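Q: Sequence in, structure out?
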Amino acid sequence: MAAEPNEPPTDSPTVKAAVIVCKGMIDDGLYKSIQRRTQIARREGAEYLLYEIQTYGGLVSAADDISKYFLKASKEAHTVAYITTEAMSAGAMISVHCQDIIMLENATIGDCAPMILVPNQKLEGVEREKAESFIRGLFDRAANANNYPRALLRAMVTMQIEVYRVKNIKTGEYEFFESIELSNKDPNEYDLDNKELVVEGDKLLTLIASDALEYGIARTVVKDLTGALDFLAKRDGVTFAGEPMVLETLWSEEMVRWLNSPAVMAVLIMLALLGVYIEFNTPGVGLPGLVAVICFAIIIGSKYLIGMANWVEVAVLVVGVLLLMVEIFILPGFGIAGFSGVTCILAGLFGMLIRNPPGTLPWPNNDIAWNDFGWGVVSLAGGFVGFVVLAWLLAKYLPKLQFLSGLILVPTAAKLGTEFEVSMTIPPESKTISVNVGDAGEVVSTLRPTGKAKFGNAIVDVVAEAEFLDKGTNVEIIEIHGNRVVVKAVGNQS
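A: Exactly. Output:
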């Protein structure tokens, strides 16, 4: 049952409250959104900030940022973690950094042990202790700041912690201690003979609302928001002015969070690489290249909005995309520009996996940064694997599908001497027409520098040699390599 504070005095001060909804995965996008909405609530005069928690966890670095922000916000307003369903893992971390925890009936909190990314492997020994020690320190910070039982919070992180509840003989109140602490306790001050085991040494602590209230983690358990406000009003001797404002995430914020999820980011990377691959194998400017540019723009924009990309990393990635465009649309073949472009793109993408100032090297400097970097690498690896599989399928089967064969060119097959099969448009009655190095033709669409030229009855996709050529210009084939036919102007323009 909920605690029953005294009734507030009739002359109690009137205050405003705001409910800030925190649902779904804890990530950098949620952190930015919490900052924005908290600032709005404070500008509107809210003195009580109720953060509505519904989450199974998320990124440790984002949870640490939110936790520190809650501590900062508590210096200006009263912060409350209002847990409506569950506050698990990183959700428990941010909740205990609020001054109060209020839970709905049957809500749960706990289990904040770190997880490893590698399947079928476990953190053991020194590695596990290294990962857990930092998180335990964060819970210790919260326990000291907001008067929560320190031993219970630590038991949410580490399985080896055994916790007992012991009655203080002098005060008559119960306190919580780790088993290793009991040997130092005075039996004349604590009733050690009747100690109660609360957390076993091989389990992580997860509490339902009633147990959280009994053990002093939840201040009260209520049926709804009105009950939470009534409790705060009676306990603190205040009166809330009307209904609290409710601030939810914007659709744009949810979109950015969705785009930065590992699965969606992997798909964006896959489509970007696939667009570049198809464009390299198709003369001229086409839809695949546009798709690649759009995907890169989305990746850059979403990372920048959540603070993961600084201007240096954005500039490096943009330079890489521009170099690839130069290689695709201006310079035939794949050379220094293409290699440099790919290198810059990879450097920019990896830099965006780590939050760092523009003047520092993007490299993980602690366990939390390494964990988040690992999730980012998983996204990149997933996208790359998907790209390789789709590229192989396209190269193998797409040319055989008549209605889609125009999206990609079949690799050039050498014939007699300098004769090659190339991408061309020919009259329906023709069976096979090939062109050779040295053949003369005429430009039928302006080469900028890519376009089409006619050689006999065949209209061929070509690339001009370092110049733009107008329609009607006489040209000669000087190179055929890969899927590119390179031409140069000859004679007089017709």
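The first strand starts at residue 14 and ends at 23.
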